[in-house]
Write a structure and sequence with these properties.
The chain is of the alpha+beta class and about 120 residues long. The chain has one domain. It is about 55% helix and about 20% strand. It is built from six helices and four strands, in the order ααααββααββ. It has a two-stranded antiparallel sheet with strand order 1-2. A hairpin with a 2-residue loop joins strand 3 and strand 4. The protein is flat, with a radius of gyration of 27 Å. The N and C termini lie far apart (about 70 Å). This is DUF3718 domain-containing protein. It holds the Pfam family DUF3718. Keywords: Signal.
């Protein structure tokens, strides 16, 4: 009985250590894009900037065109927990969204007043 309690306690004590295990990212190939994705996932902001300069690509180009595991590089950086690099890249992403502006103007025509509604949509 004592042996079972000892094993159970040892197992419970090791449980938090598995939660602290660090994720390791492995390159699928040796391309520049893959190396940059690895840098985004694991390196500090300074190390990433050094690799970005060495790659020959501009930061804005990477933010909008580099995909890591089928995600934009900024989203991938955020998913991996590298928030400083993620903020840097997400600031440079082209924001695609929907804009709708409604302009209500009043025109008076004699005794009748009519409201003029102008709808402008951008995509």
């Amino acid at each position: 009985m004592f042996r079972i309690k000892t094993i159970a306690i040892a197992g419970l004590l090791c449980l938090p250590l598995t939660a602290l295990a660090k994720t390791t990212y492995v390159a699928a190939d040796d391309s520049k894009a893959t190396q940059l994705c690895l840098s985004v996932a694991m390196d500090s902001q300074v190390s990433f900037l050094i690799k970005q300069k060495g790659s020959g690509y501009k930061m804005r180009y990477l933010a909008n065109n580099l995909h890591c595991n089928d995600q934009l590089v900024g989203d991938f950086a955020q998913q991996t927990g590298n928030n400083r690099v993620a903020r840097l890249l997400q600031r440079l992403e082209i924001q695609k969204g929907h804009t709708e502006i409604k302009d209500v103007a009043s025109q008076s025509q004699g005794k009748q007043e009519q409201d003029l509604v102008v709808m402008v949509r951008g995509r």
